[in-house]
Amino acid sequence: MAISSCDKFDKEMCDVFGLKHVRELTINFKAGEIATVTAEFYPTVDNIRQVVPILRRFNLIPNENEDSTIEVNEIGNKHTSFATI
Fold first, then answer.
1. How far apart are the C-alpha atoms of 75 and 69, rounded to whole Å?
2. Is this prediction's pTM over 0.70?
3. Separation of alpha carbons 75 and 43, rounded Å
4. Strand partners, 5
5. Most exposed among 25, 31, 52, 56, judged by the fewest C-beta atoms under 10 Å?
6. For residues 37 and 6, what is the distance between their CA atoms, to the nearest angstrom?
């Protein structure tokens, strides 16, 4: 069943899962299986800042400048954030 993005259903479903700034939400109900939810959303600036220490701890980004800040740019409305690490 296709639902347009202007329906209240979208917002209510996102609220149920505690999701904000959602770009795409897919809910699959398959007979005899567990329901699955896939969400694509725009992280906030605070989300990005919390990710960096985790990336460093698992050596996914260089640890050489631990006290340096990351550059975070908000483009468009405040719901769309991009970060350069």
1. 19
2. no
3. 12
4. none
5. 31
6. 20
- Rounded to 5, what percent of the chain is helix, strand, coil? 25, 25, 50
Q: Which residues contact 49 (CB under 8 A, 6 or more apart)?
A: 70, 72
Between the alpha carbon of residue 28 and those of residues 34, 35, 38, 60, the distances in Å are 9, 6, 8, 32
**Residues 31 and 52 sit within 8 Å (Cβ to Cβ):** no
Q: What per-residue confidence (pLDDT) applies to 69? A: 54
Q: Which two tokens stand for residue 23?
A: 């770009």
Which residue is listed with tokens 């896939």? 38
Residue pair 12/25 in contact (Cβ under 8 Å)? The answer is no
